[in-house]
Specification:
The chain is of the alpha+beta class. Helices cover 36% and strands 24% of the residues. A hairpin with a 5-residue loop joins strand 16 (267-271) and strand 17 (277-278).
């Protein structure tokens, strides 16, 4: 087996480590040594610190840390089912030999070779980007289905062991996030089960009861309903019972043969608290956590899925949602990166100055509502992008060059176009964008645009500023 460098994360500096490994504390996770190492091993002797370290790794801003393959080392911590499922591999060997088997090493190789892990995109911090981090994680483990585990230890009754580490608190937010990503077609879900969650506190632990329609008590009993053919009397079985035989309480006749003398058409219920007799009890649920009673149909009914990355999700994991817009623009228009665009502007400026007969303009449109829109759109996201890109394709000419700055600012060079003409193009684009937003979302695009003529007053710094703002 190849000697692979791994870091054994432990608070114990005397921890024995196999060849190819090195002991490392949680504080050292920010160092280059940690970034360069092939995988991490959690000290299995200390469950609590293993959990803490795993959370620290998964919440780290650097992709090379938070996507790092993690192995749970030998020790008592392996008895924790959820922790064992939260890591990429569980070490089967003792501390003096290499912590992983060849098959496990293959799995680790796969993770390390993924585009998500290899990419050099700037670290993205913050809770608002958690969806992207989750996508990258699932994408970097694309052969592994994220299967929920049923557990009484979590409020929601199910655990997604690998994904939970990304959330500060274990609550319903993970469900909402996964549902959102599935609705956006970024994740594919395989049906596992249905689950009821308390509408007040999200708890999965609900007591389903049948209750009295009159006094709401659950203290009810059921009996068979007996119908005497001859006199038509119908009542609970207990009213007919006299010793070992059945006697009609109305006509006093004995009931011998079912189907001949009588039948039992249904059940009848009675309340031990208020003595009310009724045909249909009322189902209700009581939450074990918050104690509130709610009709079952008013509780949150969720579908539990096992998740995998979709093809679209794998793309978004690499570029982010907004960058997909850029990608589509690139496929359909004459697109340049920012530096190339600036060089073209410099050339255009000198051309306009030299010949003094032609005019060109730069158009800047910032669709400020784009990021919010994509969160709302769900499964319609891709169609929405395409409509937006079409608005540009239809309004611009083949000779126009564009670039995208930041998340949502499209900057276009309109050659041989005077200010008046550029304003017309801007107006048409803004109208189209507004229309697309209204049609799909009924929210304003908050798009802002301006026209900058290319002349000797055009200051490249100023343009750079408007590009970056
Ligand atoms: Zn009652
Ligand atoms: Zn009778
Ligand atoms: Zn509750």
């Amino acid at each position: 087996m190849a000697v692979t460098s791994f870091l054994l994360l432990s608070q114990n500096p005397d921890k024995i480590v196999a060849d190819g490994g090195e002991v490392c504390t949680i504080e050292e996770l920010d160092t280059q040594k940690a970034i360069d190492s092939y995988f991490f091993v959690l000290d299995g002797d200390d469950k609590d610190s293993a959990i803490e370290m795993l959370r620290f790794i998964r919440s780290h801003p650097n992709t090379k840390i938070y996507l790092k393959p993690v192995v749970l080392g030998a020790g008592v911590a392996q008895q924790d089912t959820i922790l064992s499922a939260a890591v990429d591999a569980v070490s089967h060997t003792n501390e003096t030999s290499f912590p992983i088997s060849e098959e496990q090493e293959e799995l680790i190789n796969k993770i390390v070779a993924t585009q998500s892990y290899q990419q050099k995109i700037t670290s993205i911090l913050g809770q608002q980007q958690i969806s992207l981090r989750i996508l990258r994680f699932i994408s970097s483990r694309k052969h592994i289905e994220q299967v929920p585990i049923m557990t009484p230890e979590l409020l929601t009754g199910h655990s997604y062991p690998m994904l939970e580490q990304f959330f500060d608190s274990v609550d319903e937010s993970i469900w909402k996030m996964l549902e959102l990503l599935k609705n956006q077609h970024l994740l594919e879900g395989r049906f596992i089960s249905k689950a009821y969650h308390c509408t007040h506190c999200e708890s999965a632990f609900l007591n389903f009861m049948e209750t009295c329609p009159d006094c709401k008590s659950a203290n009810i009993k059921s009996d068979e309903l007996v119908h005497h053919f001859r006199c038509g009397h119908a009542a609970a079985m207990q009213d007919f019972r006299t010793g070992d035989i059945l006697v009609c309480p109305k006509c006093q006749q004995g009931l011998k043969h079912i189907g001949v003398d009588y039948d039992k058409p249904s059940l009848v219920f009675s309340c031990n608290d208020c003595q009310h007799v009724f045909a249909e009890p009322v189902p209700t649920t009581k939450c074990y956590r918050c104690g509130r009673r709610t009709n079952p149909e008013d509780q949150i009914q969720r579908t539990v899925y096992a998740y995998k990355i979709s093809a679209l999700g794998a793309n978004v994991a690499l570029f982010g949602q907004e960058q997909l817009f850029t990608k589509l623009l690139k496929e359909n228009l004459d697109f340049m990166d920012n530096a190339g665009f600036q060089r073209v502007i410099v050339l255009e400026k000198s051309r306009v100055e030299r010949y003094a007969i032609s005019t060109s303009c730069v158009l800047v449109i910032d669709i400020k509502g784009l990021a919010d829109a994509l969160v709302e759109l769900g499964e319609r996201g891709l169609g929405f992008y395409k409509d937006l890109v079409n608005a540009f394709v239809e309004t611009l000419r083949k000779s126009d060059i564009l670039t995208v700055v930041g998340r949502s600012a499209v900057t276009i060079l309109l050659t041989e176009t005077n200010e008046e003409g550029a304003h017309l193009v801007l107006e048409r684009l803004m109208e189209n964008i507004e229309h697309i937003f209204e049609q799909s979302l009924s929210i304003p695009s908050n798009a802002m645009g301006k026209v900058i003529p290319v002349n000797n007053e055009l200051n490249m710094n100023q343009l750079a500023l408007s590009l970056s703002s």
